[in-house]
């Protein structure tokens, strides 16, 4: 990584403006990126980060402003032009094609051919070299991408960027789907790339990552640059948060009031099993209690939630809600009994993106807002508006398509759905994934408020400090088994990591 490098910028974006009908997404953003540096782009959800990188990627055309490479103005009318100028983008929403092989994805759009025939052997060999370079030689060029984990798909996306001989690589929330070991590998690769003079534009809401990997920072707020070329080492976190939010935000977890010993057990899981994924999982969650599941990606945490919810059919054990045993493999039975789930992939699994906010909020309570077999739109909107106000949904317009909301506000809408439903048990899978620091604090407070009102909460997070800070009690999952269960204050991050890496029972 570069340190105090006086070299001329490799990339400059000057006065970038982008208008959409009825909205100005960017209002004069400036960004200077040096060769061989990790330049971190920070801002709250909705600040304009995604629009800016889409302008750089050729997916959006700026209304005004200039882009320069090596000091020379360039036009990027489409994504191919950006790639030809050496700019590759890894989006947060992975853009791999599940039905194609690893090699086909990496060389999609720039196939190696000779006299019209694809050089399959050469493509396979180059793919193996790229996978080895990225620390994953076990991923075969011939494997179908749809069979890979999210972390594996991200590796393919990065390999595609490297296959284009990129000079600037944009990484949008690259660690969101990675466990700690995968993050370390990602940073190793970034170090190798920057040592070769490749510039990395790194977007993340995890400020501790910025400290580890970044050289300089640009902060944008409401489509404008509010902090430019800040040195990572000398800029306090408090200042960064204030620039992003426009106010002082206490980035802390709500106080744990403690759960009364006589609080009724709402959710009881006994010896739950899903063949080949997890086994012998037992846990209880009392009314007003937050229980956290900590573990590496692939440990079975998310699958446990999905099985409790009925989205997967258990191969053993039982799930009981308020003393009543639930039928395996039935989401309808779980929802009807009072269980709600906010999934990890909210855009693909939890939201209907082209539907309005109010429809997404009332999705689980249609029966309550129906009149004579027809949906009562007025009743839907009334219920949704009440929650939008209560949760400080921004903007509070429940008629707009939910895809137009920021990640944090989409997550609030997911929680609002279960508030309207009045669920007794709430399952949260990565509740703050892709959510900025200001919205995180709001979501933490909201989850605690739900628990204080008597909801039993079971939460999964890849961020161990989040599990330890939010939960009253923590279960550590390793290779599909519970290896520890106890109060959150009785264990620290290092102990959790030791257990998930070793897999030994504490």
From TrEMBL:
Main location per the UniProt record: membrane
Pfam family, one: ABC_tran
GO MF, one annotated term: ATP binding
InterPro entries attached to this UniProt entry: AAA+_ATPase, ABC_carbohydrate_import_ATPase, ABC_transporter-like_ATP-bd, ABC_transporter-like_CS, P-loop_NTPase
Membrane topology category: Peripheral membrane protein
Any one cellular-component term (Gene Ontology): plasma membrane
Cellular compartment(s): Cell membrane
EC number: 3.6.3.17
Coiled coil: none
PROSITE patterns xref list: ABC_TRANSPORTER_1 (PS00211), ABC_TRANSPORTER_2 (PS50893)
EC category name: hydrolase
Name recorded for this polypeptide: Arabinose import ATP-binding protein AraG
Biological source species: Isoptericola dokdonensis DS-3
